[in-house]
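Please decode residue identities from the backbone states below.
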């Protein structure tokens, strides 16, 4: 689990990307547009966005402005054990194919969420010596997720505008995500979507900033990391993520991540996940 407060005076437009973790973004300033999957959302103070590990996204800056936001990131394995049969804490992070990622909070809702964030940051701080601090932090994260699910429980009536070019190609991304553990070739994609493989390849890179092969590898690595965090062996994690060769998996993982799969698994198991920088100065909404 990780909570950070960002202040960016020079906010550059970011390319499309996705994270290994689930993410909650609470925006504390005005911006321009936030692209998530094939949707376009306005960036404004009090907006909240939730992203799962397959949500491609990028942000577009507002010229000459300071961009401030809170980011809460966590692995789904950290909270799956807290969910019950009656209540899935990750409900609002699942099935984002037709989903409104943004919710606009009022002052009271912002205040409530910031108070929860403040408490979590207290227990995550490296100098915190409170007894049972990791349990308190995890319990508070669960409380945040209950509240987030409450906020997203009522469908929003407003339609979210789509980015037309991305909308035309997002079915390709959805297809890849659904068949990520299977053999996926450019020829196969071109045949399924009745388009030239050369045109598909070039348009995909133009729109997302990455090649189809790069996207497939990154998605498989994200899945493999999840298996490694759950305790699967290196070989089984690679196989289940769609890599057809253990050597290829280890080489690709090491080259991309910077450490071997075994080192990643060992690092995750021994890592104190509940470390966060000293809480920054609070926004005016906070006491």
């Amino acid at each position: 689990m990780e909570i950070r407060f960002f202040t960016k005076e020079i906010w550059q437009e970011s390319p499309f990307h996705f994270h290994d973790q689930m993410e909650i973004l609470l925006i504390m300033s005005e911006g321009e547009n936030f692209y998530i999957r094939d949707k376009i959302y306005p960036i404004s103070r009090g907006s909240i966005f939730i992203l799962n590990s397959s949500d491609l996204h990028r942000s577009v800056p507002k010229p000459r402005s300071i961009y401030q936001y809170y980011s809460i990131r966590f692995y789904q394995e950290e909270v799956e054990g807290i969910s019950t049969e009656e209540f899935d804490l990750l409900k609002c992070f699942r099935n984002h194919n037709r989903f409104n990622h943004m919710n606009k909070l009022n002052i009271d809702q912002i205040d409530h969420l910031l108070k929860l964030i403040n408490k979590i940051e207290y227990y995550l701080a490296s100098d915190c010596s409170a007894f049972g601090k990791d349990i308190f932090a995890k319990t508070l994260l669960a409380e945040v997720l209950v509240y987030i699910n409450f906020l997203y429980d009522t469908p929003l009536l407003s339609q979210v505008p789509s980015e037309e070019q991305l909308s035309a190609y997002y079915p390709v991304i959805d297809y890849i995500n659904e068949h990520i553990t299977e053999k996926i070739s450019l020829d196969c994609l071109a045949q399924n979507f009745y388009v030239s493989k050369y045109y598909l390849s070039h348009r995909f890179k133009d729109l997302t900033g990455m090649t189809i092969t790069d996207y497939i590898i990154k998605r498989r690595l994200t899945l493999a990391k999840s298996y490694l965090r759950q305790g699967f062996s290196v070989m089984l994690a690679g196989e289940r993520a769609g890599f057809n060769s253990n050597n290829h998996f280890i080489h690709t993982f090491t080259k991309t991540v910077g450490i071997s799969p075994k080192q990643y698994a060992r690092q995750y198991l021994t890592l104190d996940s509940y470390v966060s920088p000293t809480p920054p100065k609070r926004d005016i909404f906070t006491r």
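Observation: The first helix runs from residue 77 to 80.
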